């Protein structure tokens, strides 16, 4: 049985150079994802030397918009090595 | 929803076949792209895999990345949107136009739009709020320091730092950092106030949109401090010698100040039992605000704010769970009118409420000036009104004399008269404990339902209808429980008034029934204003309303009238007799005192109820009844020629009457009764014409009744104790009277059509049809017979 | 295109049951809808309906064509646990195929199915107050406007809620109906 406690945070790199971090909530048979509590990180429009992050909430991520899907090391261990 | 898999399972079932060291793209993260997509083959039922606690319905609110209609990051910006620096100095014309635009966007927000596409599109407001959040976390206490226009995100490079330089001796720099800043603070604070009001007494999305992009709209800032700063700033402007432009700046500042002062009326205590005197000075700012708006409205508005000062930038820059949208702006004219209406609405209910001295006035005020007039209210005026009539301490209008509990009792007494035995018995020291125990929750229910009704008046018209529908359930339940209780107390303890020997009056149940019938009629007729009914349903609504109205008229005319007469006679004759019979002593003195109260307080109120019912209420209802019967008859004839269809089946008929279906008393009319009521034989032409002539005569009679009523409302000075302002009531009756005239004309036209088509009346519906459109009164549409094209 | 998904043929147009395994159909449906409805929807709006109620998605194709030219998406659920309520979520017809009665056929097929398969007590939908065509269509099928919803749509229009009563239950207020399990 799974609970929300061991829900997993993913970091998704989008094809347009943004990255999204959020909790994987739904995945459909075609590989489209739904992330909740999502934060978007991109280059700060006001200062290109900085990264800028903001909350965008519940986000649908079509499969073809993703460059890569990653998890942090700890999560990875939890998922695959237990 | 049943899923064989869940997300965690997918991850766990996956077998690690490759060396995952290759997938590591940095120290922190490991690439699982292929693993995840490969695991999709485990889904064999064509369903999504979801977290156990997630409801897919929530997913419908998601945004979608790289979808231009759903991803704010894709918003296209102009170079000026990015380069705009809120620290820069601005010309006085620029500052004026930015401040005008902020008023315009504020009113656009209050016209059912969201903050990101209105006020927050202003870069000054964004920078101010970002800095406020940041500096407050750093522990800064000074408001003006907290709300800086320096863009902290520019600080990185030397070049950027230059952009944030202060030019303290430059007037144009100070116009931004003194004037525009305190103005922006005031607008922001006002938005914060509106959000609080909206969350508490209005409906999200329907009335107001309070989504705030996780920004704190200066909730902890005291508006008095802002007002103080505005006044200091105005003084500073006067030292600048800017001629007429300083007037505009000061007007704008003052107007922003008056917005903040609106909530001060919530501290004002209305007396409610006698006129609250000498209070206009408290709302002088509302008058001044209206004057300022009249001046600002005719400014030359050709000068536009600097480019980049307003943009969609914030939508892709800050926390945002919304989809991208264009900036929404109502017209210059509409914004000032809307702002003016806000102040005007508040001024008008402030004045009216202070003149209130009795319950009839209060009820008419709530019904005509607020409820039926609600579409002329600014949404914030509605919100403030709700907080104004019922205060945090449960007092009505802040009155020291009337709170929610006493209000409900007074409302009962204003219908069935005072000295209600069952309520008086509560004050007796020897009251039976079992009565006391049962009456308390019943009184609480009564108070709750009274409160519910008070939350209806200031809501938007659609909400009013839904809340009225809910009220039917509440008042019907009340009637059942109070009837049983009053009857039991009467038969067991002999407490309660009698109509005649052994027949109890049940005054509170009578009041509840009276209230319920009124709500039932309101619900039926207001559906017409909301355009809920199709052509063929209008007859049913009038037919049903006539039925209810007849019950109401009968209730007031017979039961209520005789009960109140009985009370009057008792005070005038019965009670003095009772005193006379007594020997001198403390008991006699006590009754004498009661006699004095009866004559001074109870009796005048009873006489007023009789006057109100017989000189005003019943006259209005009789006219309405005539009107309803006339138009119903007209509709029956139209149906008989198949110009209007009828309800095809019982199920649809019952669905229409569903809101009233649970009510025990009065009985809901049946489908058979409905069909029966429609029976009309139009085969005899002369007979049909004669019927229509009778309808015409009835309409003429109705017109006479309305004319008489309007004349009385306008000229009978003693009517003033029924309302504090007759403007809306007069409008109501003038509209009804216009309705009667127009039905009369439509009827004439129909008779002419009948005459022209005498020979083939059977096929009338093939060449003619009925057209129903908005009429003179919200409850009565125009019903015209026209030729088919 | 699987032939066993065919429901009926009306005026040379094929009405099919949506095939939940077909990504092509899913994509066609979502692009048809996003192109012609004013409110933008994410993939997960479609999934809300199609995951649980794929049987209530009906698509229309020209004979021997693969392009979807019309679609209806609906659901059936207990309402407040006292009535079975069908809900018509979206109906979209490709503009050049409008005024041919396709929308009406889709709604009728859906109503029929809701009655036969799920014994619904009522069928509900919402539409903008200014959408006369839709309102007429539904009223002609027996729907009644039961509620006006204030500023329901993003563009500040009010909406009407319409209901088609199927069973007596539809005409009784919620507070007076027993929970579905006990009924």
Number of helical segments with 4 or more residues of chain C? 4
The largest sheet of chain A, given as strand count, sense and whether it forms a barrel, is: 5 strands, antiparallel
User: Strand order across the biggest sheet of chain C?
Assistant: 1-2-3-4-5-6-8-7
How many beta-strand segments of chain C?
Answer: 8
The CATH topology of chain A, please? SH3 type barrels
Low-confidence stretches of chain A: 1-5
Order of helices and strands of chain A: EEEEEH
Structural class of chain C, by secondary structure, is: alpha+beta
Radius of gyration of chain C: 17 Å
CATH class of chain A: Mainly Beta
Q: How would you sum up the global shape of chain C? A: globular
Q: For this structure, what is the CATH homologous superfamily of the domain at 3-126 in chain C?
A: Gcn5-related N-acetyltransferase (GNAT)
Q: Which residues of chain C sit in consecutive blocks of at least 5 with pLDDT less than 50?
A: none
The CATH level-2 architecture of chain A is identified as Roll
Average pLDDT of chain A works out at: 87
